[in-house]
Amino acid sequence: MSALAHVKHLALTLGQAPLFDGAEFVLQKGERAAFVGANGAGKSTLMRMMAGLNDPDSGEIVYQSGTTIAFAPQETSFEGFVTLRDYAQSPSVARVGSAAEVPAYAADAALEQFGLDPERTPLGLSGGEARRASLARALAADADILLLDEPTNHLDITAIEELERIISGQRGACLIISHDRRFLERVSTATLWLRQRKLLKLNRGYSSFEDWADQVEEEDARNLARLETQLKAEEHWLRRGVTARRSRNEGRRRKLMAMRAERRDIKELSAAPTAGITAERGAESARLVIDAKGISKGYGDRPLISNLSLRIRRGDRVGVVGANGSGKTTLLELLLQRREPDSGAIRMGENLSLAYVDQRRDILDPNLTLKDALTPGGGDQVMVRGVARHVASYAKEFLFTAQQLRQPVSALSGGERNRLALAIALAKPANLLVLDEPTNDLDMDTLDALEDMLASYDGTVLIVSHDRAFLDGVATQIVGPLGGGKWVETPGGWADFEREHGQAIAPRAAQKRSSADTPRPAAPKKQTKLSYKDERRAGELDALMPKLSVEIDALEAKLASADAFNASDFGKTASRLEAARAERDAAEAEWLEIELRREALSAQE
Do 343 and 488 fall into the same domain? Predict the structure, then answer.
């Protein structure tokens, strides 16, 4: 592998706090690196530096000559673009090396691959559609380095699995920030960990991260224990009296001060905040929480749900899955009697108290401060589990500082808004939690805390999620669509549902993401010409094959000369001749495959 990018000694300080210091790693061609670290550690900032959008205080990023870069950020703006084609053709980063403008046919191909109409206006895109458009723009550039910041947010499982296939086929390098552990396990070949202001690298994928992280932290604990022992010995020496004040012992005293500072730094860094999410359970509900019998719901001639019967009992943690537009939110609203079915009946158990976090986070008022959102009645107290808590103490459990309490909700990031919505909902006494896409924008530490809370919660939980690892960790059963309005229930988590129903879960083609208030994208055009990548590769092969033939002729002539056998480089020349012949054979075979595809597509016109 060859190095495409070398990050050298990057340092950045925000305010008074160093974000990272001396960060260094090499990104190799063909490498797909998972980039992990605590919330606020600086992962997105460092990625933006690689995209040329932020500058470090010191250090540099060196790229191989001619390297091109594409970036799909967490948030994207469609301002100034008339169509999605215009957007996908625009440069995806401020610095793209020697990259040329993306051709229209490449932009169209990338958009259609994600089920988007290139002629569609960007106005009114859903969260999932905006994410797919951002990914299409980055992939259309066919760049050497692909930077992806939370690429699976707002994507359904079908789209995530399609993205896994695309990323795994990339020839260049990828750097990926994601909270989706299953996604990282499937696509990554290396792992970068931004920890305690330093950057560590493991030359294995994310599936090996947990064991590696345990080893790193155990070694740190041993080092801290050794430092504590040394410090006790030095402090004992210091307390012995006047000898510690003599000039010849000043060096030893300075060493003691440095050790104290080192211990203080280690403890501050190792005490990174983690979410402590808990939920207030209300009075015990009836044993049967929701009983749905033969319910159906459709729009026009499109059935979303047909003749579904479902019983949810106290203590169940039900995961609801399916492609965007398949009816997950509609099913929730039917089960909660917020919408009437076309047919069938729904009965809710007695004594139910509900806490509901919807997908749009409508529980949040953007005009309020964080403190006012948590204490709608005013004052400094919030009632949690029937006990009055200081609002700063409760907010800290969701990783908010006392200073952030004065921030307006509108200024919070996506992850912070999600945590605040959970904090508000979970403070309410409830025995039925309904969480619609609770994992969007959450970092892994908060995800772990949410999993722990749900696993120990003794009420009933309904969860809509596309996070497969999260569902495997918390769900007792999965409800999902198989297409044509048919829904099924499977005991266990996502892995059990996938094993039982496989690819039968409604594909994107059957779901086309239509709703009453969003226009349907046009059906993908029938492919009648080679893809942009195939055209580009055919051109490369056309140029490569003659060069290899010329080189082979020269090598054969050299070996055929009278004194070739006595030459010192005879073995090297013979080896290169064999390799060049193999390369030409492979190039000719690949060129022939592309030309056969071209002929087959031409015949369909």
Answer: yes
What CATH number has the domain bearing residue 335?
3.40.50.300
User: Coil, strand or helix: which one is 311?
Assistant: strand
**Chain segment 421-474, per-residue pLDDT in tens:** 888 888 877 889 999 888 877 778 778 878 877 877 778 999 999 999 889 888
| CB burial string 554-581: b at 16+ within 10 A, e below | ebeebeeeeeeeeeeeeeebeeebeebb
Strand partners, 376: none
Nearest to 534 by CA among 603, 583, 604, 596: 596
Give the percent of the chain with pLDDT over 90. 32
Write 572-578 long-range contacts (CB < 8 A, 24+): 577/552
Tokens of 187: 């696509």
Which residues are 148's β-sheet partners?
72, 176
User: What whole-number distance in Å separates Cα of residue 201 and Cα of residue 358?
Assistant: 37
For residue 521, is it within any domain? no
Half-sphere exposure for 397 (CA within 13 Å, toward CB): 20
Q: Residues 187, 235: one domain?
A: no
**Where in the sequence is the domain holding 557, given as residue range(s)?**
532-603
Sheet holding 486-491, edge to edge: 354-357, 432-436, 460-464, 317-320, 477-483, 486-491
Total of domains in the chain: 4
Q: How many CB atoms neighbour CB 106 within 10 A? A: 22
- Distance (Å, rounded) from C-alpha 444 to C-alpha 451? 10
Distance of CA 99 to the CA centre of its chain: 26
Q: Tell me how many helices (H) and strands (E) the chain has.
A: 18, 20
Distances (CA, A) of 369 to 411, 480, 539: 9, 38, 58
Answer whether residue 580 is part of any domain. Answer: yes
SS3 of residue 428 by DSSP: coil
Over residues 206-236, the pLDDT tens digits come to 999 988 988 888 888 787 777 777 667 666 5
Strands 17-28 and 145-149: unpaired
- Read off the pTM: 0.69
Amino acid present at 167: I
